[in-house]
Each structure stands twice: as C-alpha cells, then as structure tokens.
Known about the structure:
mainly alpha; 3 helices
Amino acid sequence: MTAEADLAAPEQPVRGGLNQPRRAIAGAAEIVVTGALVWLAFWLWSKSGVTVTQSFDDGRPPYVSHRLYGHWMALSILSATVAGILLVDAIRQFILAVQARPGGKGRRRK
C-alpha cells in the first residue's frame, strides 16, 4: 500500500496566483495616499522659503533677501519621493488585478 502511494504523482502545491481583484482596492488606496503626499510636498515646499525685506530711512532701496529652510525642503523632497514609489506600486497592483486569469482564453504556445 505504501509502495503505491509513493508511485502516485505528487500533489502540486496550491498557489494563490497573482490575479486577485482585491489588489485593485489596494491600488486605489495607494493612489489616494499618493495624492495626499503630493499635496503635502507642495505645502512643505511653500513653507521652505521666506522673503526678508529691510527698508532704510535714508532713501536707499530696500534690501530683499531670501532665506531657505533645509528641513522643510528635505521633507518636501521625501514626500514627493514616497509618492512616486507609491504610484509605481499602485500601477503594479492594478496590472496584477486585471491580469488574465490562468486557464483563460489567451495566446497559445505553438
């Protein structure tokens, strides 16, 4: 009896497959977070620079200088970078959600 069981074809492991429609929900959530991060990046960038104007009483033109805050710029760049990575992953999620199902009609190998 055990010899027959050993000769039987081994069972193939059951795989979940990459085609899962719930991936579209994850992709949509990532798109929403990407939009929020892009808005945050622009908001942070606008906070990174300050214009300082100094006027003089003796008739000279005012002295205008611009001060840039590096931590606001760094956070803005970080936010935009994370948004870009999430956008690429969202595209991947959508592609995997709509990918052709195994065993469906598609190209056949010759």
